[in-house]
Design a protein that fits this description.
By secondary structure, the protein is an alpha/beta fold. It is built from eleven helices and five strands.
Length: about 250
């Protein structure tokens, strides 16, 4: 069975609430020699995205969204144990996410793949206040802070956290990576909130971090509207000084 067929049938089981059938299908796929990484990349993560999309478009109700997400998360817990693991490399990743269970599942799968690459990972889940996140950052000193946010309403809090981190200046070498969710749906949002790196999915997240091992700070330019306002004010002041001198 091709992986696309596995995904299609798996989605049917999820939306029908068939826990046992969904689990048995993934177990059979693993038994046929399909690696766990491929199952996460082409079945579990796309299923999570599809469930979220169907719910946002009103094609499934909250009951189905919750049920399907919980089954998918249960199976993700089991599949991660089958991931081939590289030796520990001393690198550290701290992952946080938004309030929804889909956000938690997304961040969890990201941690699973980084852990398989040899990283030490810490997953906070949702609902942790920013001051406690900052305290843990100071203790762990991670190489990457990964943020998965699936809802537009979560963006202001994420931006406040990033702004605070950069204002403190104690984590200048730490990369801030945003993945999936709302960052996939809103082009350029990662740059707008001053994240260092963006990835659409966990596979790309690992690839992006490996390709950009060192943080390159981006200039914190003023917003164009504010810059124009300051320029106008300065010009006005110069005009008044010239008039007074005349």
């Amino acid at each position: 069975m091709e992986i696309a067929e596995v995904f299609a049938q798996y989605m049917e089981h999820l939306l029908a609430g068939n826990r046992a059938e969904a689990r048995e299908m993934i177990e059979a796929t693993l038994d046929r020699g399909v690696c766990a990484r491929k199952i996460i990349q082409y079945v579990l993560w796309p299923a999570m995205v599809q469930i979220e999309r169907l719910y946002n478009e009103g094609k499934i109700n909250r009951l189905l969204e919750h049920m399907a997400t919980r089954i998918n998360r249960m199976i993700a817990d089991q599949v991660q144990a089958h991931l081939a693991r590289k030796p520990k490399n001393g690198m550290r990743l701290l992952a946080i996410c938004g309030q929804s269970e889909i956000s938690e599942l997304g961040a969890q799968m990201i941690c699973d793949l980084f852990e398989a690459e040899g990283w030490g990972t810490w997953f906070l889940g949702s609902g942790v206040p920013n001051d406690e996140i900052l305290e843990l950052l100071g203790k762990l000193k991670p190489d990457v802070l990964c943020i998965y946010g699936s809802l537009p309403s979560e963006v202001p809090a994420i931006r406040r956290l990033i702004d605070t981190i950069r204002e403190i200046g104690a984590y200048d070498q730490m990369q801030i990576l945003v993945v999936g969710g709302i960052f996939n749906r809103a082009a350029g949002l990662d740059e707008e909130i001053h994240a260092d790196l963006f990835a659409a999915d966990p596979h790309q997240a690992v690839k992006t971090v490996l390709e950009h091992p060192v943080r390159i700070p981006k200039p914190d330019l003023p917003q164009p509207g504010r810059r124009r306002k300051r320029k106008k004010t300065a010009t006005s002041k110069r005009s008044r000084r010239v008039a007074a001198a005349s």
